[in-house]
Specification:
The chain is built from ten helices and no strands. It has 241 residues and is mostly helical.
């Protein structure tokens, strides 16, 4: 056990760091010159990451208000996704459109897992037919037909080194695929998971993007990433159920 005095020092330090790096983006929306017009910035992957920190601090301090902050960000991301499952803030980013869609999905998965550990199921939160399953479907749809993201990615908003929106930057990093480990171990019988499983049984007919998602699917509960990029969570350890 940690001595009470040291426990308070640690908790105060965490509070200071979370407050210093607060980036929840409440009360801000995208207003012009972007396909993300009208979308609240609290749905941005950076805001989702900040929400995770607040949520974890809420658990540590037994502070319900801090814990529930992340629900507001989670709700916004689900509510403001397009009907096809694309996230307007993320998929406008050129050759890293799906890279950032994946990052946002990772953050949403972490929020859902923390909530799950506290007795709340937000995986199935739905708004007018839009839910987390729909985000996963879009990602899978993309791997089968990468052209579906072109109309969004061509905005070329801060694409980093990925300057060609027709070539999506998806490597084997946990930043891109952590969400998959959480998803298929919780929803193995969902059509999304079954679709990838079917692909895994006939690799010769798959394109490069499909092969990448099948590789991750086949790796669930097997080889660890050896690192935990961006979400600070190692998928094969903390994401799987």
């Amino acid at each position: 056990d940690v001595p009470s005095e040291e426990d308070q020092i640690i908790k105060k330090w965490f509070m200071k760091i979370v407050k210093k790096n607060k980036h929840l983006m409440y009360d801000q929306i995208y207003k012009k010159n972007t396909q993300a017009i009208g979308v609240p910035k609290r749905a941005h992957n950076h805001a989702l990451s900040s929400a995770i920190a607040h949520m974890e601090l809420g658990v540590l301090l037994n502070d319900e208000k801090l814990f529930r902050k992340a629900f507001k960000n989670f709700e916004a991301a689900i509510k403001y996704q397009r009907k096809d499952g694309s996230l307007p803030i993320e998929v406008r980013r050129g050759g890293r459109a799906m890279f950032y869609q994946g990052r946002a999905m990772n953050a949403l998965a972490v929020i859902a897992i923390i909530a799950e550990n506290q007795g709340y199921n937000i995986w199935d939160y739905e708004y007018k037919g839009k839910n987390y399953h729909n985000l996963v479907k879009f990602f899978i749809d993309f791997t089968e037909n990468n052209e579906i993201v072109f109309k969004y990615a061509k905005e070329m908003k801060s694409p980093g080194p990925a300057k060609d929106y027709k070539i999506q930057d998806l490597n084997r990093s946990s930043s891109n695929w952590g969400w998959l480990y959480a998803y298929v171990t919780r929803f193995p019988d969902h059509d999304n998971a079954k679709r990838i499983k079917n692909w895994s049984q006939n690799l010769s007919d798959l394109n490069n993007y499909q092969r990448k998602i099948v590789y991750q699917f086949n790796n669930v509960s097997k080889v660890g990433f050896g690192h935990a990029s961006w979400t600070v969570v190692e998928p094969n350890c903390h994401f799987t159920k």
